Amino acid sequence: MHYDYVPLPKRQPLKWPNGARLALIVTINLEYWDLLKDSDKPYYAGGPPVIPDPMPGNVPDFPNYSWREYGHRVGVWRMIDTFDQAGVSASCTMNAKMGLERRDIIDAVNERGWELVAHNYEQGDLLTNYHFDREAEAKLIREALSVYKDVVGRASRGWLSSSLRSTTQTADILVEEGLSFICDYMNDEQPYLIKTPKGPIVSTPYSVEINDFTFFHRRGMGTSAVLELLKEQFDQLYLEGAASGRLMNIGLHPHVAGHPYRIRALREFLEYAKGFDDIWWATREDIADWYMENHQSHIPETP
Fold first, then answer.
1. Residue 103 lies in a domain
2. Is the pTM of this model over 0.90?
3. Is 303 domain-assigned?
4. Is residue 33 part of a domain?
5. Domain CATH code at residue 73
6. Where are the alpha helices (DSSP H) in 90-222?
7. How many domains does the chain fold into?
8. In the predicted model, is pLDDT for residue 221 greater than 70?
9. In the structure, what pLDDT confidence band is assigned to residue 303 with cuts at 50, 70 and 90?
10. What pLDDT does residue 101 have?
11. By residue range, what is the domain housing residue 222?
12. Where do runs of H (alpha helix) occur along 168-240?
């Protein structure tokens, strides 16, 4: 895989459909973590723990496991209700184990017609574990995509790696498997093309800055401060989007953002954003399809 470095001043203005200034994606990451691993090494479960003391994989870590499972049992339903009340769709990511073990959640998302993006097989089995074994990485990706198709009822169009940890061959494999976008890179506020030997794939940028793990846990921000942070990000991108369209992604996790004392930040931000007419409430698939057809007017493809 390879992508060109094209700084903003050397791009043509990006003109979203219908004159929108800002494409807004609010993501719910639907993730399953195994309780046990066949290993005596510390188990990195694909996300920061709430209790930091590492445990070996073959010993149950019930505080961290049940903290995460709160999102499956309670938090996600509070978030779904919040989106329903706002009349807004979420863009969800789903690892394969989530589809196998927590089917009720996937069915609820599917019934609403929300986007679902393949998100690895199990949250703690990072693709970087297979960096030196391309076929093993390809096999894991194919298995995740197969479960996705069985559970969701259609093929996934895109991919987000656990903890955004992909390899230099991930994009190549995804194109070989027929996918059209990847979400692992956080280096832009506009989509761009990544080149592979079998053709291009669209990068639809993710963000760990605008992410509940970052502002609630890593920075210890309160609910009101997070609401103001989201508005600040939105307002600046909206301002800049008058000249060239921008993309804003908000990354959320049900066991983090789905708690009662935090849900107000999501509820009031959705209400705020709905007050603007020239916003594209896009799915990643929408953006990828549109950009694949229109990228030449933004960043012309080089040989």
1. yes
2. yes
3. no
4. yes
5. 3.20.20.370
6. 96-101, 103-111, 134-152, 170-176, 212
7. 1
8. yes
9. low
10. 98
11. 8-297
12. 170-176, 212, 223-240
